[in-house]
Specification:
This protein is of the alpha/beta class. It contains five helices and 13 strands.
Length: about 220
């Protein structure tokens, strides 16, 4: 099975690259194992970078499985810092307009329909049965918001929690699902929680733990696929 791991930054997957002794093919962007079974693609942060670089890569390389891997902030305090979750749905977290103290997304405004096609009731889910693979069955199943601006204001966080029943937020997952669904490619998204979504305080973050947990999970997953 030919597997590509997609990440926004090299920092998030450096232990994986080192573990499998992957060769750097394109400086800072693309690594591969000698047998080509494992590729690592670094897209850059955000939806635009992810969609652009992933789409170009996917059109050039015929791969069997894609895994989106990264860190995330959690709205759900039941999820522990350093815990790795499987994201089973993504939706926009800041795609809309402000109306005074209220935020209205484009579903509220009627520009988008919560129809049952690529966005099922406003949620984008990956295609295929890979999401039910036994290798990830132990991971907590979570919903996610993809945002352009990480939330860090109490009033905004409270509004978002009330509006969307999401467990975590990240900056790339929606683009990842969208590109691969359009290409009808099986994909998985896993995220390790580095912090809770709150007023920005990096003293409460644990990036080393979340990166270690993420890469431990990735190494085990790749050995089973």
């Amino acid at each position: 099975m030919l597997v590509t791991v997609v990440a926004a930054t090299r920092m998030e997957v450096t232990p994986l690259i080192q573990h499998f002794q992957l060769e750097e093919i394109e400086k800072g962007k693309f690594w591969a194992s000698k047998d080509q079974k494992i590729h690592v693609l670094i897209t850059g942060m955000g939806m635009m970078q992810t969609a652009t670089h992933l789409a170009i890569y996917a059109m050039r390389h015929n791969r069997d499985v894609y895994i989106d891997a990264g860190v995330a902030g959690s709205f759900n305090r039941d999820i522990k810092i350093g815990e790795v979750v499987q994201v089973i749905s993504e939706t926009y977290g800041d795609f809309g307009v402000e109306d005074g103290d209220e935020f209205k997304d484009f579903y509220d405004l009627g520009f988008l329909e919560k129809r049952e096609d690529e966005f099922e009731h406003g949620l984008l889910k990956p295609v295929g049965e890979l999401i039910h693979h036994a290798a990830i069955s132990h991971l907590r199943k979570s919903s996610s918001l993809t945002v352009n601006k990480v939330h860090g204001k109490e009033e905004t966080i409270a509004m978002i929690i009330k509006k969307y029943p999401a467990d975590i937020e990240n900056m790339e997952g929606l683009a990842f699902f969208n590109v691969l669904n359009e290409l009808n490619k099986p994909c998985i998204e896993i995220r390790s929680v580095s912090n809770y979504v709150e007023r920005r305080n990096k003293e409460n973050w644990d990036l080393p733990l979340s990166v270690k947990s993420l890469n431990d999970e990735l190494v085990g997953l790749l050995k089973l696929l």
